[in-house]
Specification:
This protein is an all-alpha fold and 38 residues long. The chain has helices at residues 2-5, 15-24, 26-33. 58% of the residues lie in helices and 0% in strands. It has one domain.
Length: 38
């Protein structure tokens, strides 16, 4: 699971909240997936 393996979030956050943040924020989703904007 990509969200569980994500270590970019230094705060101790629940998986539910991480999923919601990734759905709401494109920058967070890109950081989790390891995608860098050009």
């Amino acid at each position: 699971n990509l969200i569980r393996a994500d270590k970019t979030d230094t705060a101790k956050t629940s998986l539910r909240l991480k999923r919601k943040r990734a759905a709401w924020d494109d920058d967070i989703r890109m950081k989790m997936l390891g995608i860098h904007p050009l």
